[in-house]
Amino acid sequence: MDGTLFCVFPGVQSQQLDQSSDPVVIKPGTSHQISCQGSRFTFSNFHMNWVRETSDGRFQSVSWIRNDGGDIAYHDSVKGRFTISRDNSNNMLHLEMTDVKPEDTARYYCARYTLIQDNV
């Protein structure tokens, strides 16, 4: 399914994050916003990420936001240019990209942040 990222965890119903699958061409120096919407899980309970996949198949965490929006982090390459935000009342995650550079070319995904601990 293009444009849909499924997060599946054993023993729980599948959670879903929907975003547009249509490719967008953005000229360097311009701005663009991308968004995704969560469903089938309590969106406001989870930290969220924007992750990008480059043309060589590498994944890079671009930005992270705490469930209540109180803490935010960015990859060094996008600091000061990208802004992550969330709207918990509508289960929405946004990424505002300004001063876009050729090296920002990638496929962008929103992802639910999940910490997996090994209780040894």
From TrEMBL:
One of its GO terms (biological process) is adaptive immune response. InterPro entries: Ig-like_dom, Ig-like_dom_sf, Ig-like_fold, Ig_V-set, IgHV. SUPFAM superfamilies: Immunoglobulin. Signal peptide: none annotated. Residues 10-110 form the Ig-like domain. GO terms for cellular component: extracellular region; immunoglobulin complex. Keywords: Adaptive immunity, Immunity, Immunoglobulin. Pfam families: V-set. PANTHER family: IMMUNOGLOBULIN HEAVY CHAIN. This is Ig-like domain-containing protein. It comes from Eleutherodactylus coqui (Puerto Rican coqui).
